[in-house]
Amino acid sequence: MRAMVYRGPYKVRVEEKDLPRIEHPNDAIVRVSLGAICGSDLHLYHGMMPDTRVGMTFGHEFVGVVHEIGPSVQHLKAGDKVMVPFNVYCGSCYFCSRGLYSNCHNVNPNATAVGGIYGYSHTCGGYDGGQAEFVRVPFADVGPSIIPEWMEEEDAVLLTDALATGYFGAQLGDISEGDTVVVFGAGPVGLFAAKSSWLMGAGRVIVIDHLEYRLEKARSFAHAETYNFVEYDDLVVHIKKITEYLGADVAIDAVGAEADGNFTQHVTSTKFKLQGGSPVALNWAIDSVRKGGTVSVMGAYGPMFSAVKFGDAVNKGLTLRMNQCPVKRQWPRLFEHIRNGYLKPSDIVTHRIPLEHIAEGYHIFSAKLDNCIKPLIVPGAS
Amino acid sequence: MPYLAAKPGQGRSSKELRATILGWGVDLDPLDRPAVPRERMDLVSGAHWDFPDRQEEKQPRERSIEHKILPPVFGTSCPPKGFSGAVRKYAYRYSEGRAAHWLLLLAGDRIDAWESHLRSFVSMRPDNPVTETGVLSEFTSHGVSSRFGKKRADLSHQWIDPLIVAGPWMVTGGGLAIALRYLNRVRRRRR
């Protein structure tokens, strides 16, 4: 089969690989019909995530058709069109039985601090991902769901991570009616978090980024008030000013490890790997939220330490909430919102890239060329 | 102003928002939010086992020492090999709480990249930094206009990326050239 393969920092290519095999009785093999590159894939692409091995196939956002099932699979059959959450999880361990699917303890030998994620390094379990023609899907009776007939494939693929994560991030903000929510980052997760904040009754939604075309999308797609942080000498003071010096009630970090805004923080983390991630957006979130407010962290960070302003968080009495999204818990409600027309995830898709051109796709997304917001990957397309 | 008890009025009224933003407030009640409460025991996951069947361990699988047992299911992509594999296996002697664990894994990643590049040169498909970086998309995807005249914070450090990709190759190439010149000189002197 054809599959994207990591060749070292900033380098990927498409290779011929062996078809994945059933390795566990509850495995399924899925033929991928549509995948995506996630912003967090860029952390792998840039060599930031420890134990990212040359030869691995990335991709944790994908949908497809069941090609083969293991002997214990009861809920799926060959030919079913399925959407697969980015979490690999067993559904039965201490954490899964409490709904913490992203914290499963039965799927990741390499680390206890994170569950399993498709195509996301050995630190997340060593599973090949879905930027390929076929992918092994463990626990086929637990993770995947059949795509409803009324749902478009591009909406389904965005439900496997970006939309679910943005919606989850807004929930972690514990938004009350009339709250002011500031979202750092106007990438896919930030756009969805901003949009979801309205569903939860926010009174004001502010989005911060430095890419004008993404801020424009935040205005048109998420009805948000936007600010380009490059234009402000001190972004935190600006947010204080526009909130009558109170600060936002809720801040959502939808940027994560490669945050810009401070050269030293960015370079020490993303270029020299001396931190688990650049904490610029997280520190802005901590400093711009009001005392007693809530910071929701959706951005992905590596397992190494980062220079987070924890003292400010303590002294302000903040609630810090975070987790990888337990995707499938969000689906029933998100299906309703899509069906009711409250959300249209595929509106943020900007690029549809054939798998064979995935190296260009990574470069375009990484370098933010061509007004790229969300690139989808199409196996088999020419 | 926070110097007084009242919350400053900042936005539009709920009535106005409900009228202008489709779906405004449909998840206002926390009971409608699927992630609330965080931990719930009443969810149906689809699992029909108390403990899953164990996946066969066809070769020794490295694991965190914070795990008591090897978890029943695991990824089998890219088993450790070569010197990078030895470094990675050594890293798993340290817990996830130790910086040594992560720093050794990062070192293993860099060694792996070099081992793989060198291995590719004796394969049918040597690494090609031009095609593998996708850099040619600069010419087809508005590389200049996407950057020029924009208020982009990342332009201050994007110049480092080519150095990260090409720098080690140039240093190695330069080193080899110097070594070859030196060897040539030594050979000439002996004649």
Compact overview of the structure:
Chain A is built from eleven helices and 17 strands.
Outline the structure in words.
- The complex is a heterodimer of chains A (about 375) and B (about 190).
- Chain A has about 375 residues and is an alpha/beta fold.
- Chain A has 11 helices and 17 strands.
- Chain A has helices spanning about 40-45, 155-160, 160-170, 190-200, 210-220, 235-240, 265-270, 280-290, 310-315, 325-340, 360-365, and strands at about 1-5, 10-15, 30-35, 60-70, 80-85, 85-90, 115, 135, 145, 180-185, 205-210, 225-230, 250-255, 290-295, 320, 350-355, 375-380.
- Chain B has 6 helices and no strands.
- The chains are: A alpha/beta (about 375), B mainly alpha (about 190).
- The interface between A and B is large, with 117 and 102 residues.
Keywords:
heterodimer; A: 382 residues; alpha/beta; 6-stranded parallel beta sheet; 11 helices; globular; B: 191 residues; mainly alpha
- Helix share, percent of chain B: 40-55%
- Coarse morphology of chain A: globular
Provide a count of the helices of chain B: 6
* Proportion of residues in helical segments of chain A: 25-40%
Q: How many helical elements of chain A?
A: 11
Uncertain stretches of 5 or more adjacent residues of chain A: none
Proportion in β-strands of chain A: 15-25%
> Separation of termini of chain B?
88 Å
Task: Give the arrangement of secondary structure elements.
The complex is a heterodimer of chains A (382) and B (191).
Chain A: E1 2-6, E2 12-16, E3 28-36, H1 41-45, E4 62-69, E5 81-84, E6 87-88, E7 116-117, E8 134-137, E9 145-146, H2 153-159, H3 162-172, E10 180-184, H4 188-199, E11 204-209, H5 212-222, E12 225-228, H6 235-242, E13 248-253, H7 263-271, H8 280-288, E14 289-297, H9 310-315, E15 319-322, H10 327-339, E16 351-354, H11 358-367, E17 375-378
Parallel strand pairs in A: 10-11, 10-13, 11-12, 13-14, 14-15, 16-17
Antiparallel strand pairs in A: 1-2, 3-4, 3-8, 3-17, 4-5, 5-9, 6-7
Helix pairs in contact in A: 3-4, 3-10, 4-5, 6-8
Chain B: H1 14-20, H2 82-91, H3 99-120, H4 129-133, H5 137-140, H6 160-190
